[in-house]
Write a structure and sequence with these properties.
With 59 residues, the protein is mainly α. It has one domain. The chain is built from 2 helices and no strands. It is elongated.
Length: 59
């Protein structure tokens, strides 16, 4: 794996972590859980957690 793969991996993690950090407080989770996106398959697991969690009503 060259440096291009690592840079692409970091960019993909950042691109996925920002939307998750905005969505997670709406389902009652800490936005810092969005850092799980940097773990392989972490974004997929986080997506399943968000999908099956009860969402708090918007104010």
């Amino acid at each position: 794996m060259g440096s291009g793969g690592l840079i692409g991996y970091l960019i993909a993690g950042i691109v996925m972590a920002y939307p998750f950090s905005r969505i997670l407080p709406r389902v009652g989770l800490n936005p810092w859980f969005s850092l799980v996106c940097f773990i392989p398959v972490g974004a997929l697991i986080l997506l399943w957690v968000v999908a099956f969690r009860d969402w708090e009503p918007r104010r």
